[in-house]
Design goal:
This protein is mainly alpha-helical and 142 residues long. It contains 4 helices and 2 strands, in the order βαααβα.
Amino acid sequence: HEYFHNWTGNRVTCRDWFHLTLKEGLTVFRDQQFSMDMTSEAVKRVGDVGALRAYQFPEDSGPMAHPIRPESYIAMDNFYTSTVYRKGAQVIAMYQTLLGRDGFRKGMDLYFKRHDGQAVTCDDFRAAMADANGGDLNQFER
């Protein structure tokens, strides 16, 4: 996970804490994809779904439920949640499902080309994905 932050978190980072899922969710997604490539995609996915069921589902059904891009916070230490990491990774995976692996890669290449060394927002990521693929991804707007 920390290795992948070299690109998604360090080279391109979030503009503010409200876009933390872009740093953490995208990094979890990249780590998951790497693990799938190195082992078994099916076995890794079963493990990831198990983690969603164990951590994400209870969070979503309790008082800590919040969107991957919260509008406010009480304390910064309560921002590092399963929603930001695991659910954020699932939203990134939705981009890949909609665009296909090649389309997603084109979007990532454009994202890094446009934003290397910058602090960005979730909307910047969405725009790079849409522009690289000539598609409408407005369903990912807040």
